[in-house]
Amino acid sequence: MATIEHAIEIAVPPDVAARDLRTFAYRTTIGQYRIVDRDVEWSAADSCQTESLVAFESLGSERTRLTMRVGYEPDGTPGCEPAVEARANDGLADFKRFTEERYRIATGDAQADVA
Questions:
Q1: With contact defined as beta carbons under 8 Å apart, do 21 and 37 qualify?
Q2: Assigned domain for 50 exists
């Protein structure tokens, strides 16, 4: 199985990121996911048969490094790796916007500038 790994930093505490990722994954993925401590893993059946693991690392009181490891088994379809790579990048960017916006609203800091 081939693996792609990406990491992003988000401006929310790790427990908030973990909670929001479960909500985000439920809303945006087709497949099964389960919680392992604060990590979230899921699998999806598509042309590349992917399995993902997301881990959360605290970078301080309100910052988290989220690392996504995507394992995939290409079915021989050309372009499988670029498709998995793009989906991982897009998913992380979408999740960053999703969780930071929810956190700003929840903390009453709708004007905060999020890095």
A1: no
A2: yes
Q: Quote the tokens at residue 55.
A: 């881990």
Could you tell me the CATH number of the domain that includes residue 19?
3.30.530.20
Q: CB of 35 within 8 A of CB of 28?
A: no
113 found inside a domain: no
Q: What are the strands of the beta sheet with 32-36, ordered from one edge?
A: 2-10, 64-72, 50-58, 39-44, 32-36
Summarised one tens digit per residue, pLDDT across range 20-33 is 887 887 666 545 55
In the chain, the number of structural domains is 1
* 74 half-sphere exposure, CB direction, 13 A CA radius: 13
In a domain, 114, yes or no: no
CA nearest to 102, candidates 33, 8, 18? 18
Question: Cβ distance 112 to 63 under 8 Å?
Answer: no
The pTM score is 0.75
